[in-house]
């Protein structure tokens, strides 16, 4: 129940930001998008997902997120009402929810890989948005585009600190599944 | 080894052995092939054969990428093998690593020999996009994507290693031995291999991240030329990545010495505070020293030159002061019986140490201004690769297939070892001599007055190639013998 | 095995979706999408009345020949001035090749850009009216034109505007049929030549 309320809150926050997103891409991409994804993931956390659907679910989330990372999708969400509605539907239901539902099945190496991928994609976007010789979004000023690029970089730095520091101090959440799939270990036990 | 170790030499075969043996075979064959490429280049520079300069640069690119790749592959195999003595590593991850690595190699070879990419292994921005018509943009993209695949493979490899170390030794700080070093907590001090593994995975992951970032930027630049990267920034990222990555190969391979030498001397290699401190210094130095690749870039701030020069010197201390010195101490008076594996491993450490000396010389700003683009620099890195990493890799390979009944150097082994040392030393000395006489590097065609050196080098290179051929054949024969 | 099959199928579908969302890997930005889509599906341009810098009114676009245009506003301190220079170079490039194509710099700010402003912009960039002229539509036609040509204009906080700039091509049938980088002279020339 609490999760549903929290998801509702996150969704309302995202809706209340809508009047501001046309002015400021940082609010659009780094506040409204995460709020929508968070709303979906709060719903998806308790989902009981069958094991064989993990892969497709993860792919759905990653593909949807990839499409929303295209600069043209940002423009479309501002200029085209269909895309605007699609934003409020797909970010929670096709990114946040499936990601959270699949996460408990994901092994620790794949988790680490996805985290590393997220950081490198953010840095890559940061590079694109700060270095692009033209405006990437027709709806945003070039200064705001560069601000968004820096925002990607700051977010990447924050994620690095958040995800890496525990590895140094030993509080890592290891996944039980890792050992079940462990080929080498089976071999040892057989011996 | 402590009682909690997953595997010890007495408790049965290493679960990763088959995979590692296969990798060493692959690495050995590629080393040999790349040496042949190197020989062809030297012979062409000596004007003993005529080689199309375009082909020369394809070979140069393949030689660089192939050597760095097989050094990384063999180093990774060695580290994986010995880490598996202390950790419960999953073969599936290693197989994924190997698969991605090979896929990357296929793309790289395709981009070079089908696409005609000849922009050298360092893919220095914006060179991949400025082929002068020799290769199309797709060849440059393919080369970069090949590297990215290899980077992804290594990321998986280090993630598995890092996660297992962090859960076994209470975080990476435990794996690095820093709890013992800084907090004097002497419970569960990691063995040398784990200290090395932790250090390498920390700095090489950072290196690969920077490499991947600049590769992605280069790919965008190739596809959409109007996206320009600041070339100096790109150069910094590339040399940071390149320096860290090639150094990591040898820091991974040296674990073979830590783990194999005790079998011969009966004295375990211990994780002392000095040892752990040296590795802590390596983690810092290996990342800070790359500035010595940019001493000729006048736009770099002056402090980077100072750091580059100072750290070039300082890097030698943990290396020569600790590893080479410790090796001497462990060997001295142990009554060690020299056979081929231990001879090659010892050669590897000595060559590594010696190879850093020309680097320190070239790391001096005033010297670098004169020597950077001469053959002095290949002289430096061929010393610590040919007589260092490669020697360690073949030493490890020979140890994998050793015949336990034989404890001495057979006459063939002695001949091969001497030929390898003689040919290798001669080869690198000619490079250094050429560098000191201002012969430039990376030139496909040499003036007549430079050709004597190239011809001499060709002779030495031929000896090395033949010795390496015997080492590879001997390894294959050893594999066949043991599988019977 | 089932899982692998499922995941691979999903990945294939995902690639198809991304392929679709980027017009076949050709456009990641809205401007890129405009250029790709317009080239494939030209859009009919309904006639509007334009006032050119010589003060005359004309129904535009005239059919039967290709027309080049770009959208500007004359008080623009930056990109329109650069693109004005590019447009002048384009004119020289085309006339050198013997191509006499009508070229229009159309203001999307007709309230500020009255006749004198159009004339001084034309003077500054050497637009003599033939073949290149500066023009403005009627105020209530601006929104429709911008929409049709997929130009997004946003205020820049300094009293001016930022907008996606390109050289736009109208084909002899009176259809908006291409958008090009302002310095892609060779591409524009071959597009025009293909229409003659």
TrEMBL record, chain C:
GO molecular function ontology, one term from the record: metal ion binding
Superkingdom of source: Bacteria
PROSITE patterns: PROKAR_LIPOPROTEIN, THIOREDOXIN_2
Keyword terms: Copper, Disulfide bond, Metal-binding, Signal
Transport found in the keyword field: no
Domain Thioredoxin: 39-196
Keyword Iron attributed: no
Matches recorded under Pfam families: SCO1-SenC (PF02630)
Signal peptide: 1-21
Disulfide bond residue pairs: 76-80
Positions of Cu cation binding: 76, 80, 163
InterPro entries named in the record: SCO1/SenC, Thioredoxin-like_sf, Thioredoxin_domain
Similarity field: Belongs to the SCO1/2 family.
PANTHER family: ELECTRON TRANSPORT PROTIN SCO1/SENC FAMILY MEMBER, LINALOOL DEHYDRATASE_ISOMERASE DOMAIN-CONTAINING PROTEIN
UniProt name for this protein: SCO family protein
Taxonomic lineage: Bacteria, Pseudomonadati, Pseudomonadota, Alphaproteobacteria, Rhodobacterales
């Amino acid at each position: 129940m609490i999760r549903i309320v929290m998801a509702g809150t996150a969704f309302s926050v995202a809706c209340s930001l809508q009047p501001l997103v046309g002015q400021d891409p940082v609010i659009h991409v780094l506040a409204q998008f995460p709020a929508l994804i968070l709303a979906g993931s709060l719903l998806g956390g308790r989902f009981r997902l069958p094991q064989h659907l993990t892969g497709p679910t993860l792919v759905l989330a990653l593909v949807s997120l990839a499409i929303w990372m295209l600069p043209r999708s940002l423009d479309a969400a501002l200029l085209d009402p269909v895309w605007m509605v699609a934003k409020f539907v797909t970010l929670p239901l096709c990114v946040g929810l499936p990601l959270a539902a699949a996460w408990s099945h994901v092994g620790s190496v794949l988790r680490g890989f996805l985290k590393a991928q997220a950081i490198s994609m953010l840095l890559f976007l940061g590079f694109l948005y700060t270095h692009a010789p033209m405006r990437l979004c027709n709806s945003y000023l070039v200064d705001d585009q560069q601000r968004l690029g820096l925002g990607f970089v700051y977010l990447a730095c924050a994620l690095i600190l958040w995800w890496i520091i525990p590895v140094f101090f030993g509080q890592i959440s290891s996944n039980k599944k890792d050992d079940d799939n462990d080929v080498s270990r089976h071999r040892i036990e057989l011996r | 080894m402590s009682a909690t170790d997953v595997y010890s030499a007495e408790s049965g075969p290493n679960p990763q052995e088959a995979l590692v043996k296969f990798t060493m075979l692959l690495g050995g064959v590629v080393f040999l092939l790349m040496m042949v490429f190197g020989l062809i280049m030297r012979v062409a520079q000596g004007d003993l054969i005529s080689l199309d300069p375009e082909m020369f640069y394809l070979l140069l690119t393949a030689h660089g990428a192939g050597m760095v790749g097989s050094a990384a592959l063999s180093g990774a195999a060695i580290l994986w093998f010995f880490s598996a003595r202390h950790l419960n590593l999953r073969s599936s991850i290693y197989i994924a690593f190997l698969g991605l690595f090979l896929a990357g190699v296929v793309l790289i070879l395709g981009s070079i020999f089908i696409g005609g990419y000849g922009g050298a292994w360092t893919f220095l921005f914006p060179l991949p996009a400025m082929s002068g018509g020799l290769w199309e943009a797709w060849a440059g993209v393919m080369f970069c994507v090949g590297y990215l695949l290899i980077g992804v493979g290594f990321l998986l490899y280090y993630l598995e290693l890092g996660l297992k170390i962090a859960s076994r030794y209470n975080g990476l700080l435990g794996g690095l031995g820093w709890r013992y070093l800084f907090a004097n907590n002497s419970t569960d001090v990691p063995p040398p291999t784990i200290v090395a593994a932790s250090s390498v995975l920390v700095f090489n992951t950072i290196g690969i991240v920077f490499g991947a970032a600049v590769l992605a930027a280069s790919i965008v630049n190739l596809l959409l030329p109007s996206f320009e990267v600041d070339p100096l920034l790109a150069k910094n990222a590339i040399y940071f990545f390149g320096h860290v990555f090639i150094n990591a190969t040898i820091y991974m391979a040296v674990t073979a010495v830590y783990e194999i030498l005790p079998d011969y001397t009966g004295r375990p290699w211990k994780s002392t505070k000095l040892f752990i401190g040296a590795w802590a210094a390596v983690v810092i130095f290996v990342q800070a020293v790359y500035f010595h690749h940019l001493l000729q870039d006048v736009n770099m701030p002056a402090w980077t030159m100072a750091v580059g020069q100072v750290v070039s010197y300082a890097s030698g201390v943990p290396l020569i002061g600790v590893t080479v010195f410790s090796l001497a101490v462990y060997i001295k008076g142990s009554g060690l019986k020299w056979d081929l594996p231990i001879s090659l491993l010892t050669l590897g450490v000595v060559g590594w140490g010696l190879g850093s000396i020309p680097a320190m010389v070239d790391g001096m700003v005033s010297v670098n201004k004169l020597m950077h683009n001469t053959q002095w620099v290949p002289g430096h890195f061929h010393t610590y690769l040919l007589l260092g990493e490669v020697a360690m890799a073949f030493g490890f390979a020979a140890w994998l297939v050793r015949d336990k009944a034989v404890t001495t150097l057979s006459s063939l082994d002695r001949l091969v070892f001497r030929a390898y040392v003689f040919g290798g030393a001669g080869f690198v000395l000619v490079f250094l001599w050429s560098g000191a006489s201002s012969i430039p590097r990376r030139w496909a065609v040499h003036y007549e007055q430079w050709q004597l050196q190239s011809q001499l080098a060709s002779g030495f290179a031929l000896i090395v190639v033949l010795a390496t051929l015997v080492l590879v054949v001997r390894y294959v024969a050893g594999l066949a013998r043991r599988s019977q | 095995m089932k899982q692998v099959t499922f995941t691979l199928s999903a990945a294939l579908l995902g690639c198809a979706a991304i392929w679709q969302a980027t017009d076949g890997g050709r456009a990641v930005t809205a401007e890129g999408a405009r250029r790709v889509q317009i080239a494939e599906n030209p859009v009919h341009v309904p006639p509007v009345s334009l006032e050119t810098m010589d003060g005359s009114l004309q129904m535009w676009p005239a059919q039967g020949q290709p027309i080049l245009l770009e959208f500007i506003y004359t008080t623009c301190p930056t990109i329109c001035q650069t693109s004005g220079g590019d447009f002048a170079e384009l004119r020289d490039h085309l006339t050198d090749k013997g191509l006499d194509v009508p070229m229009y710099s159309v203001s999307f700010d007709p309230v500020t850009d009255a006749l004198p402003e159009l004339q001084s912009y034309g003077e500054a960039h050497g637009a003599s009216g033939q073949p290149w002229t500066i023009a403005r539509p009627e105020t209530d036609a601006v929104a429709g034109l911008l929409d049709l040509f997929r130009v997004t204009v946003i205020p820049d906080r300094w009293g001016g505007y930022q907008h996606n700039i390109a050289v736009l091509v109208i084909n002899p049938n009176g259809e908006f049929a291409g958008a090009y980088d302002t310095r892609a002279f060779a591409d524009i020339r071959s597009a025009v030549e293909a229409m003659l």
